[in-house]
Amino acid sequence: AQASDGGGSIRIPASVCGLVGMKPSRGRVAAGPAGGDTTMLSVLGPVARTVADAAAMLDAMAVPQPGEPFFALPLPEGDSFEAHARREPGVLRIGRYVRPLVPDAVVEPECHEAWERAAELLESLGHHVEDVPPPVGHGIVSVFEVVWAVAAHSFPVESGREDRLVPLTRWWRARGAEVSGPGFLRAMQNLQQVARSAVLAHAAYDVVLTPTVAQPPRPVGWFTEPGGPAEDFERQKRFTPFTAVYNVTGQPALTLPLHWTDAGLPIGVQLVGRPGDEATLFELGAQLEAARPWAHRYPAVI
User: How far apart are CA 169 and CA 229, in angstroms?
Assistant: First the structure.
């Protein structure tokens, strides 16, 4: 399936549904001819059952379009992401961190175990895994929220129909309407500075390993249960404190369903690549899938 990801909306649902989700590099998939994202956070990408399917779908989606404001360099002629999903990745240097980028977020035991087991599996496959500090500090969160609030106005809503939006979207749009032009410009400049330093912080590593989410899948209605959009968003931040930073940096990020809880709930782990290097992620993802398959797992139908 095609999906979009401005803060984790490919990787999060893939993780909680036991699927593969690839957030491509910024500019890999054209947003045109209609639409566009001034914030540069949102990208289009695939959700699939296997790494090979995700790679093949990205091949179909990643068609260069003239006039795009930014683009990732295409693969060499005759090459494909699907072909990379059939290649060995070689020995990779992999950094890992588990400290959440959101204040007060806690990685629950099942998600911590998924991350630990993924690191153990990577080492058993011959890769070099070492602990690294997170690429950014907590200060990025408030800046991201300013940009995200303005982005809630990306799609126009007809006059008199705002009440048809869900409460969380109305709340975001109200916050965005309060941001001045200079305030938005400062926030965007800040995010660009953060992106540069974040990419440089882990430049020595081929791949970085994090949890995809900090909590196991939540029951339907859990986010809206408190009854207010502010608490809804706070729960979202604590649920997934690892994904949005890579929308800021524009790096590709792949979530794989490598772990299940004792109750049978899927827990994904996130692999982050260098800018423009989805190919290595597909090679590594396919290697991990072969070592610990998941495509045979289907949820019980009640």
Answer: 8
